[in-house]
Amino acid sequence: MAFKFRTGRSNRYIWSLTFILVNYAAFMNGDHNQVLYYICMLIPVFPPVGWIMFSGLNFLLYNDHMIFARWNYIYLPTLAPYVHGVIFAFLLRCLEMRYGEAVPGFDPIFRIQQRGRVPQQNKELPAEEPPEVQAERDRVRSAVTSLQQDQDLVIVNGLRKEYEVRTATSIFKKKKKLAVRNLSFGVKKGEVLGLLGPNGAGKSTTLKMISGGVAVTAGEVLLRGGDGAHLCPGALGWCPQQDPLWPHLTVLQHLEALAAIRGMGEEDAAHAISCIGRALDLLKHFKTQVRSLSAGEARKLSFAVSILGEPAVMLWDEPSVSVDPKGQRCMWKVIQASLRSRERAAVLCTQSLEEAAAMCDRVAVLVSGRLRYIGSIEDLKSKFGTSYHLQLKMAEVGQSDSVHTEILKLFPHAARQERTSSLLTYKIPVADALPLSRSFSKLEAAKRNFKLEEYSLSLNTLHQVFVELTRDAEEHDLEVASNGAVEQRRLHP
Ligand SMILES: Nc1ncnc2c1ncn2[C@@H]1O[C@H](COP(=O)(O)OP(=O)(O)OP(=O)(O)O)[C@@H](O)[C@H]1O
């Protein structure tokens, strides 16, 4: 029931009540209808209810011989729950695998723990990497081997994560899914490292492995406090993608509980809670239960919980999603304030380039589980943003081939990036586009000759740089479609 009616909670109770009433009715009629009686034996509640009713009402009426003659009323209901136990444990496991919910390995009742695996060294040889990614890998390797990690509070060395996923055809067949390949980076003291990348790039998986929530397949994560001591994952400030909140506790109860867990004194906790509440505009919600908060308010609370008690390392997985622009600015101020002490470090996973540009000292761009860039935003722009972006909107459908030939005549090194029936997009190297006055007069002439609706020529924005950088390897290799709606070509900085 819970699997089918996961959103409407009240439905489950209505269905359960209906289930019990049907059982009761079936039991009352089962005495007269043997087939119905045996079918009802398959229903979990039926045998115990029947047994209780039978024993309560009828035991006194029958002698030993008669009880034995009515064995199906005694022995069958007694044995049935054991058989049900086996059948339904199997069924539950199948459903959990099918719907992706918690399996008994993490079940709070059965407490069957997965066998701990000792993570291995990552044996995969790094693929050809950009120089800055290679330099970071070398820096991390030398920091680990020389045991001089004074600079970095977080060290991720050759991290790899494989998930086992069931195939669609069978719940027993498993295949491996590589979420993170061979990741190496360090987060320095006083630094906010931004983790950027398209959906499914492996950002959350990386943060989960750093936090200890997900076991690593290979590689290692080293964490240190500002004082140089080894840091246990419990001492991290962690704001995961899904709000880790209790629906029936109020905002204040959350903050007080977390302050107590972090071992803060009463006065310190009260002071810190009121400061955070004020900074994130949460004071007015202190008495509100989490289930009554809006998505953005709950997100702010998750973020507040992650910074309470001044943890040395903070991990934030898209903390400002659903938060309004004013709330985002408040969050950014809090991030800046928390990193004022140079003894702390943070990893901020975000989809917002504006947020990354405002908050991060360096950014790491992940694509398909691999690091494609690590460094400052300024370097990223100067490395990949030194070209012009030309967009042409055609008035008539079907003239794209002739316009394309003309553009290649005007800008011989132009690389076509996108083509739809009415839109053409090019990347043009600076050398081809300068002087701009000449480029604009050429484009004006093309506009007249081909009756273009409009065109624009601009420097690559950070957004375009990011789109280009994160274009998947498979996309790069898309064949030039002769009549396809979209066409993309590999571009080089
Ligand atoms: N528990 C899981 N079991 C199987 N595959 C998983 C699991 N969690 C993540 N994945 C897969 O691993 C890959 C990386 O997922 P991850 O959540 O780390 O991506 P992400 O970069 O955080 O994406 P997003 O920006 O959408 O949050 C995805 O292809 C995802 O389908």
Report what the structure shows.
The chain is an alpha/beta fold. Among the domains are: 9-106, no CATH class; 385-476, Alpha-Beta Plaits. The protein is built from 18 helices and 13 strands. It has helices spanning 9-30, 34-40, 46-58, 64-69, 75-99, 131-145, 203-211, 251-261, 266-279, 295-307, 325-338, 353-359, 377-384, 400-410, 430-433, 436-450, 462-469, 473-476; strands spanning 152-166, 174-188, 192-196, 218-223, 237-239, 313-317, 345-349, 362-367, 370-375, 387-394, 415-419, 423-429, 452-459. It has a six-stranded mixed β-sheet with strand order 5-6-7-3-8-9, sandwiched between helices. A hairpin with a 2-residue loop joins strand 8 (362-367) and strand 9 (370-375). Helix 3 (46-58) runs antiparallel to helix 5 (75-99), helix 8 crosses helix 9 and helix 14 (400-410) runs antiparallel to helix 16. The protein is extended. The model is unreliable at 104-115 and 473-493 (pLDDT under 50). The site of adenosine-5'-triphosphate has 13 residues, from strand 1, strand 2 and helix 7.
| Overall pLDDT confidence | 79
Helices, by number, come to 18
The whole-angstrom Rg is 31 Å
Q: Which class best fits the helix and strand makeup?
A: alpha/beta
End-to-end separation in angstroms reads 55 Å
> What is the total tally of β strands?
13
The strand order across the widest sheet is 5-6-7-3-8-9
Strand percentage lies at: 15-25%
The distinct ligands, each listed once, are:
adenosine-5'-triphosphate
Main beta-sheet strand count, sense and barrel state: 6 strands, mixed
| Helix fraction bin | 40-55%
Uncertain stretches of 5 or more adjacent residues: 104-115, 473-493
Shape: extended
GO cellular component, one term: membrane
Membrane topology: Multi-pass membrane protein
Family: Belongs to the ABC transporter superfamily. ABCA family.
Keywords: ATP-binding, Membrane, Nucleotide-binding, Transmembrane, Transmembrane helix, Transport
